[in-house]
Design goal:
Blueprint: H1 2-8, H2 17-42, H3 45-61, H4 65-77, H5 80-96, H6 100-124, H7 146-165, H8 169-192, H9 198-241
Amino acid sequence: MQRFTAERLSPESEYGLHLTLGVAMLVIATAVFAHLAGAMVAGAPITRLDLELAHWLHAHARVNGGLRQFLMAVTHLHSTPGILGLAALAAGCLYRRGQRYWLVALASAVPGGLILNVLLKHTFERARPHFDEPLLQLSTYSFPSGHTMAATVLYGFIACYAARHARSWPGRVLPLVLALAMVATVAFSRMYLGVHYLSDVLAAAVEGCGWLAICIAGATTLDRRARARARRAGAAVAPQDK
């Protein structure tokens, strides 16, 4: 048992600390998401806050044209085609740098996350906010927010990659702060334009964090296993060369 625990907490082990943290993040995110989903289904107090905030934002959005147009551009940029385009640019950079396993993580995180979000939408089938004079009209379901989930996964991935390769603490913290700001902006745009409730974007951000964590942890595990096999193969060849 002690050996098992030590291996799970080892920063160098094939199935070590990185996988332990990834699984822990997934478990925590799943629990928080389940709590939000349960509150939404049961009509808990957060649903009343959802309605009050949605109507307050809608009233202000109708009179603030400049902010509305800016957030409209933000929301269109982070549609499914936009997110996939941004992810393709990131994938191209990773390919040129020879970051094969980071590329695996990105390929599983972004497209996989979009598919997961669609499945969750059809599981809960929550109707979007309704207004007499809507700014946007969408026929898809509301919970959880696909734009927010996609932004969380994409910008979270870029932040993790940048922080992993940074050489100073400010260099590690800054990408995470910028990613948080981008996700918050996308989430706010969806609420401001009247197509999502607060609980939709909160659940989507949690969903994205859990999914991204397990994707990066899985790709890191594959990388470490490949390195370990290469070391064992080299060790087996060395005595024969002598």
